[in-house]
């Protein structure tokens, strides 16, 4: 029984040692997706288009807010001349305008708003290209794992020898200037 227990312990130690060696022998690396995106010419086009949309939508939101403020200001100025019924009608119109402005902001800039959807729509093809390039680089270099430094997933230190960002840029056909 003692020999069996010793054999069992020895087997467990061998299995653990083999597993540790296999993990240690795996090749890994990292990329910096932010660096890669900023080097990609299509990303600059996407950013410009998003910035133009953002500016136009913000301007529209500001115009709606300005209209509400003007309506309130006009109401204050004419308040003494209005009957209670006229005052309530104008106040209702102002409240409707405010609700419309809030609805616009939520529809455009909300969690699943048009801006977010447009951003996803424009970035998805670029992200797919980059992911495909990362996949090819990882396979070509026999990497078991490839981490993203920009995602800040607990990487405290990274050795530049394991940075594959330039390989991904090369795979995408982007020269580092």
Description:
By secondary structure, this protein is mainly alpha-helical. It has one domain (2-171). The protein has six helices and two strands, in the order αβααααβα. It has helices at residues 2-25, 33-39, 41-78, 84-109, 114-140, 165-171; strands at 28-31, 145-148. A two-stranded parallel ribbon has the order 1-2. It is rod-shaped, with a radius of gyration of 30 Å. This is OmpH family outer membrane protein. Belongs to the Skp family.
For the record, the count of structural domains works out to 1
User: What strand order characterises the main sheet?
Assistant: 1-2
Shape: rod-shaped
Helix proportion: over 70%
The proportion of strand residues reads under 5%
Distance between the termini: 70 Å
Low-confidence runs: 4-8
* Main beta-sheet annotation: 2 strands, parallel
> How many strands in all?
2
SSE arrangement, N to C = HEHHHHEH
Number of helices: 6
Q: Briefly note the structural class of the backbone.
A: mainly alpha
Q: Rg, please? A: 30 Å
Average of per-residue pLDDT values: 83
């Amino acid at each position: 029984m003692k020999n069996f227990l010793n054999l069992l312990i020895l087997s467990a130690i061998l299995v653990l040692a083999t597993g540790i060696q296999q993990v240690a022998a795996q090749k890994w690396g990292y990329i910096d997706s932010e660096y890669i995106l900023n080097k990609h010419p299509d990303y600059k086009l996407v950013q410009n288009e998003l910035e133009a949309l953002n500016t136009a939508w913000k301007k529209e939101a500001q115009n709606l807010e300005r209209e509400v403020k003007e309506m309130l200001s006009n109401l204050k100025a004419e308040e003494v001349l209005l009957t209670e019924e006229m005052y309530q009608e104008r106040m209702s119109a102002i409240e409707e305008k405010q609700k419309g402005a809030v609805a616009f902001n939520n529809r455009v800039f909300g969690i699943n708003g048009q801006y977010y959807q447009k951003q996803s729509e424009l970035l998805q093809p670029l992200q797919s290209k980059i992911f495909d390039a990362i996949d090819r680089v990882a396979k070509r270099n026999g990497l078991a794992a490839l981490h993203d430094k920009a995602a800040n997933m607990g990487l405290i230190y990274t050795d530049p020898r394991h940075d594959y960002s330039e390989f991904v840029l090369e795979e995408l056909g982007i020269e580092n200037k």
